[in-house]
Amino acid sequence: MNTPAIVAEDVSRTYQLDGLSVPALRGVSLTVEPGDYVAIVGTSGSGKSTLMHLLGGLDRPTGGTLLIGGRDVARLTPNELAELRNTTIGFVFQSFHLLARTTAQDNVGLPLVYRGIGRRERRERAAAMLDRVGLAHRITHRPNQMSGGEQQRVAIARALVTGPSVLLADEPTGNLDSATGQSVLALLESLNDDGVAVVLVTHDREVAARARRQIVMRDGLISATR
Amino acid sequence: MRLAEAWRVALDALRANRLRSLLTMLGVVIGVAAVVALVAIGTGTKEQIERQVEGLGSNLLLVVPGRIEAGSAPTSSPLTLDDIDAINRVVGDRTRVAVTIASGETVRAGSRTGFSSMQGVLETTPTVFVRRLDRGSYLTRTDVSTGRRVAVLGAGTARDLFADRDPIGRQITIGGVRFRVIGVFEPLGQSLGVDRDSEVHVPVTAAQRLLGTERIDGIAIRAPDRERIGELSDAVVAALAERHPDTDFSAVTQEQILGVLGDILGVLTGVLAAIAGISLLVGGVGVSNIMLVSVRERTKEIGLRKAVGARPRDIGVQFLLEAVLLTTTGGVLGMLLGGSAALLVDRLSPVPAALTWWSMALAFGVSAAVGIVFGVVPAQRAGRLDPVVALRTE
Ligand SMILES: Nc1ncnc2c1ncn2[C@@H]1O[C@H](COP(=O)(O)OP(=O)(O)OP(=O)(O)O)[C@@H](O)[C@H]1O
Ligand SMILES: [Mg+2]
To answer: What DSSP line would sit under A126-151, residue for residue?
Structure first.
């Protein structure tokens, strides 16, 4: 058996807001296996995004243990955590977060900048990735010259360009119409078929039902798993 | 992240806000331009004065009674022409020794009058100092030994007294005594604030008789070479001290005079440059301000870069380079502006200016340093941003 991609044990996250403690996660345990396909559902404010940020190494838990790629996040320096995000995690956001003045190709190549890879190789690998998500013809387009679905595909290509083992997608179809959403979802599933673990936050029951496992969040806790 | 990539990102960011970048640069441009121009003018003035002092003649040694010290009262001179004979024996070449007794006198030719500095001198003056004649001839040894009343006029005095007429062979009176003009100097202009064209040279003996004195005010000696100046100076002062045990004598070389003048001008130039440097500092504050705005505007971009693996340092370096690029570009523009201004001043006004490579290098270095110093706080702030918080900002 392979080591799990991500292990969360009794993980909590409490925000400090004007001297007030806001517990967003109150002890969540979760394991993401290699090649897994997990859907996280739950009401607004239940802590889904907070959990995703922790799983992706963007944030650190205030309690419990979190292992990403077998490494304890609490013991990592900011630089090591940055490297971990760069090598093992791919993040896809609801609002795409592409650099506005930058072409699709250079947006996709951005994570490789922080690996010290030269521009030529970055562009080659980015072009290959754009081809993989079906956007070979949009290489030199800027975000404002593309549809929402195309922008989200560029964002997915960017998440994949470093060859991560886990893809974290926080409501990736939330800003898209249902047809476009379906095609983005199909893309994620085909990546999952290729062996990349996918963790997906969604409000759509049908979408959630397609995952291998479902996790239901409520008030900062996992209320059910299916 | 590779440095080349960081430069590219910084350049891109500055280009995206062209007008804002330019306006921010302006403070640095003006500061650097002011430093470069002022240093050039200071240096040019210094060089001009040095040329004038050197123009007196090379390897000069000036001997005067008294001490050359701040606050010491001028001593009345005990020197006479007999002392000159003794000095001639020390120097071993009488053409290298010049004397002077000076007095301001009214000069008159016909109905025209003027005021000039009468200099009683030896015939050796042109071989000790650099002094060229425009016309006529200079004093001879016989003129000096017989106290003949002949005069060589400065260009200004000649113009005042004779306008366009040829003064050679004409009569003038100096302090009421008649002299015959035998020569006119080439124009010299101002030197250290003294109008050197209103001098009138007469034989020292004639001047002494006119003034009713035996004294001479000062001695100038031209040493055969630079190395021997010190030795010669000691020998001359010793010889004079032996003859006049009650008086101190001082000898100064041209280099010492230049040194003192250079120090004064150096301080002045430094003060001017420092004042100009303050505007550079103000420019730096502007850069800091704009960089903070830039960090705030691009918070989301910073968050994203961090999310895909940028380390705090990568982000910090990127913003620091942006600030440095801003100020060094401003520095180069300022150098060009200040340099052109200095050249223009040199060309179009009587104020001299000389560009020096070190002032340019300094201005560039300082503008880069301003970028680093004033960029560091915004860069650190950017580097420390929490990616989650940064991504959430709208
Ligand atoms: N930076 C923060 N400071 C204080 N409280 C926060 C912060 N971020 C989130 N929270 C709180 O934590 C809780 C969980 O937020 P989170 O964004 O994880 O919810 P969510 O499940 O993703 O909701 P949605 O479905 O609307 O995206 C909320 O009550 C929210 O107000
Ligand atoms: Mg959310």
So the answer is: HHHHHHHTT-GGGTT--GGGS-HHHH
